[in-house]
Amino acid sequence: MRYLPKSDAERRQMLDEIGARSLDDLFAHLPEPVRLNRALDIAPGRSEYEIVDYFNKLGAQCGNYPSFLGAGVYRHYRPVLCDVVVSRGEFLTSYTPYQAEIAQGSLTTIFEFQTMVCQLTGMDVANASMYDGSTAVPEAALMAMRVTGRERIVVARAVHPEYRAVLDTNARNREMSVVEFAYDASTGLSDLAALEAAMDNQTAAVIMQSPNFFGGVESVKAAAEIAHKHGALLVLVFTEAVSLGLLKPPCEADIVCGELQSFAISPSYGGPFAGVIATKEKFLRQMPGRLAGQTKDSNGNRAFCLTLSTREQHIRREKATSNICTNQALIALMATVFMTVYGKKGLRELATQNLSKAHYLGGQLARKFSAPYFNELVATPRRAAGLVNDELLGQGIVGGLDLGRFYPELSGSLLLCATEMSQRADMDKVAEAINRA
Amino acid sequence: MINKTRQHINQNEGLIFEVSSPGKKGYQLPDLDVPEIDPAAALGVAAVRSEIEDFPEVSEVETIRHFTRLSTQNYGIDLGLFPLGSCTMKYNPRINETVARTPGLAWAHPYQPESLSQGCLEVVAVLERMLLEITGMDAVTLQPAAGAHGEWTGIMLVRALHESRGNGRKKILVPDSAHGTNPATAAMCGYTVENLPSNEYGMLDLSALERQANEDVAAMMVTNPNTVGVFEADIQKAAAILHAKGALVYMDGANMNAMVGITRPGDFGIDVMHLNLHKTFSTPHGGGGPGAGPVAVKKQLEPFLPVPRLRRVGELWTLDQHRPASIGKVRAFIGNFGVLVRALSYILAHGGPGLRNATLDAILNANYIRKALEPYFELPFKSPSMHECVFGDDRQAAKGVKTGDIAKRLIDYGFHPYTTSFPMIVHGALMIEPTETEPKQELDLFIDAMISIAKEVEEDPKFVLAAPHNTRTSRVDETTAARKPILRWRPGQ
Amino acid sequence: MYPDNLRYTKEHEWVKVEGATGTIGITDHAQKELGDIVYVDLPKVGAVVETGKSLGSVESVKAVSEIYAPVSGEVLEINAMLSASPEKLNEDPHGEAWLVKVKLSSPDEINQLMSAADYRKHLGEA
User: If exposure means fewest CB atoms within 10 Å of the residue's CB, which of A108, A188, B115, C24 is most exposed?
Assistant: First the structure.
């Protein structure tokens, strides 16, 4: 087996050192009833060529067509450097950087990641990543509960439906209650009057997403005012990180959490992605997840190390802020390289291209909602949505998401996303299919 | 004598923000094929930011040098033995990285039509089948993103089963040798944690378990082989004690790599368990993640598994979202799919016989190290070792040198340290897990290094206490980092 | 090392009684066991603490230690200096680095606590 680097002679030599007759001798102490006395029913190992061929065939079934799906997973160009950097064995095959003296590479990049997330979101501190956006939301809710000592969460229906589903799973298994508030049927934005009506003095947090699930840009400031008036925190969620290149940072929020998939991370059928939580300095102690901090080594040189670990499970055990251990470090590194490649000007330019493409598409359609939008919009085809998508697929284009899947009242409407990778000719085909009677 | 390393040039590198300068860039976007939209006009002036304050502006050359220089300040498996006990730092085959980037798979959108997703769903189906064969369990979900996320999922399944039977049990039993994630998970699921002491062999204490197991216990969370690297010989008896009280047995699968092909949790009484694909199945740790933490269960827990569930309908795979008894969604979409691809590639490369051989070599390597180091370090538990061995620092501590100090000195010899101070039932633990992917030569170098350090402790403990001596970064002041946290760069800082 | 005007607990807290006010801290032994203290978590003024129950925690880089109230009462004042300078707890645990002052609700409780001599004995120093 090519991953087992020993000759039989070496094994023999090692067994002799140990004083064992055979390899099987080494686990002879396992009680007989628990031993597996047969071979695993898994075919013998295959060559590299066969494995590559196997996955190529599976991949070929998946089309890789131009696509207008967004809804939390976006099709953005991935700069070559991102894969080049994460393929460095020193990053790829390293562990969580507990041993700071031989992990300055990881620690420095985590520190840069934290800084860039703060710069984008307008927050003071950011953690070194969560599993993804959907799991960052309940972690942010729990954090708000620790800060306020309250157990009620008010969440906008215009937050990603799967994120809300994950929040519900959390709520069912602990002291947490979740209530939802509506979106405005004409603007597609969260209904702030409904939010006000949903608030009480036991609410720990308001959770809102911007751009929201329908692509609409929400008023963070107005939502923050309502939350704060009732002594609650505002948790602002984002799924499309590229929007932060253009949108005002949500400084009025108390916690910002979201998904960085847009930053060079392949859609990869839903993961691995990288979530993040950022917050104000005063809530730092309640924030879950790993943190890198700046310090000095014994020679007085600047150095970085993991810090404030007493919040974490390996020290505080059942009293920890979260049970998270493994996070998404390598994916966060990919996002860090992406942010570096585009930088201050590039991210804005990229966001503007997304805006322009989406508005080119949106301009040809009768939009369902009137609110300003970034790179996603909702349109109702004149025919059945499924028929339109099937027809587009016949032309080698993946159409939009039928919102009926998550919002019965929006059945027949499509959520469409255009990015810098969307071609004008394809957008014209999509518009034509949607507009045709 | 240090055989593995010499000094080499290693460049200093500041933060990326410090090489930033206005106007530099490392990107070029294609020309727009549609009219450019003015953001302020489309979104309103108030919604648009003027700039991303202090964001870097650097060239492509500087970018690649920055990250490459930083990478040289890291240690990885590609450089040598990484004997972190419990973490299973084995070789990460590069083909797994290649196949995870197969365009059709890497660009697949989770909401694309199922007719287009058959290749992705096939990966899920095949990996599910193989993990069930390896664990001897009845059903598995591949959705949890990491081990701790799997624990959370698994304990919610436990709760769902008990609730379906109409009882609200309150407690989870956790052995004192457990990983910190176990009690943290139990607490996250609203359970109280009750500590279960180990016996003098570092194993489950059945008489303590008899006393503590009652109708209020929802489950016991157990790691097998346990965190001292010993197979829980009484695991079936322990499971019987718990089952008799209506409680379940959860297995933390962190150490599954010691069992693949020789014994199966499903055959020794485990009801629910997680696997760490980034440990047993070699997906890269990447400096802390990503991982994947599939949860495998026995039949009685299957109805509660998270949605969606994969189902075969005629010739096609489909995702079933409607399962009334399900605990719900544990994360968006279907999990860390890219990690699943890598794990499947690993299993295909090994095949059934290869997986078993990997287990045997892992046990061989751990026992080889144990035998060679036993004369020099305290071995608190003499029970046979599986994939890792755990020593205590008693002899060295008598000279004022603790496990953490020995670990730092090991860096000078060209190795990543072992796991220090865990499990907590061993005083000053040195937890060593070589994994199967270490050549004998590398193991011999490690053994020589450890023996040499043991001698240094005898002769010159002060020298060891000041280690590492040869690294570019000397001992880092973690105290100041925690007292006066600096968690981001700011201009002029 | 252990002043005679303080009373001590087995968990290594001390209390100094002046009239109806008790000043609470941790002992020199406790700070040495913890090592470099990096953070102190204290209750809010007005909170009610109960003998034997946790009133806060002290953290080093890799450990958290609960502080158990040696006496019951309402928190009158917390030592604000410790949030910016937790290292004071390593330097002067019996003096400047007291933790909280409480209004004693049952002053008799003090009689259950150890004298300096008993505490030294408890530590095995006597």
Answer: B115
Domain ranges of chain B: 16-78, 96-348, 354-479
Mean pLDDT by 10 residues, chain B (493 residues): 86 96 96 98 96 97 98 97 96 98 98 97 98 98 97 97 94 92 91 93 94 97 95 96 98 97 98 97 96 98 98 96 96 97 98 98 98 98 96 97 97 96 92 98 98 98 96 95 96 85
Interface of A with B in 67-126 (CB under 8 A): 67, 69, 71-73, 75, 79, 81, 83-97, 99-106, 108-112, 114-116, 118-120, 124-126
Residues of C in contact with A285 (CB under 8 A): 39, 41
**What is the total count of domains within chain A?**
2
Residue A323 lies in a domain: yes
Task: Give the ipTM.
Answer: 0.97
Q: Which residues of A touch B186 (CB under 8 A)?
A: 318
* Chain C: closest CA distance from residue B474 (Å): 18
- Name the class of domain C11-110: mainly beta
- Domain limits at A222? 80-337
Query: Residue B288 and residue A125: Cβ atoms within 8 Å?
Result: no
How far is the alpha carbon of A312 from chain C, nearest alpha carbon, in Å? 10
CATH topology of domain B354-479: Aspartate Aminotransferase, domain 1 (3.90.1150)
Q: Which CATH class is domain B96-348?
A: alpha beta
Q: Give pLDDT tens digits for B99-136.
A: 999 999 999 999 999 999 999 999 999 999 999 999 99
**Contact: A315, C63; criterion CB under 8 Å:** yes
Q: How close C62 comes to chain A (CA, Å)? A: 6
Helix (H), strand (E), coil (C) string for chain A: CCCCCCCHHHHHHHHHHHCCCCCHHHHCCCCHHHECCCCCCCCECCCHHHHHHHHHHHHHCCCCCCECCCCCCCCCCCCHHHHHHHCCHHHHCCCCCCCHHHEHHHHHHHHHHHHHHHHHHCCCEECCCECCHHHHHHHHHHHHHHHHCCCEEEEECCCCHHHHHHHHHHHHCCCCEEEEECECCCCCCECHHHHHHHCCCCEEEEEEECCCCCCECCCHHHHHHHHHHCCCEEEEEECCHHHHHCECCCCCCCEEEEECCCCCCCCHHHCCCCEEEEECHHHHHHCCCCCEEEEEECCCCEEEEECCHHHCHHHHHHHCCCCCCCCCHHHHHHHHHHHHHHHHHHHHHHHHHHHHHHHHHHHCCCECCCCCECCEEEECCCCCHHHHHHHHHHCCCECCEEHHHCCHHHCCCEEEECCCCCCHHHHHHHHHHHHCC
A227 occurs within a structural domain: yes
- Mark whether A107 and A232 lie in a shared domain: yes
Which pLDDT tens digit goes with each residue over B224-252?
999 999 999 999 999 999 999 999 999 99
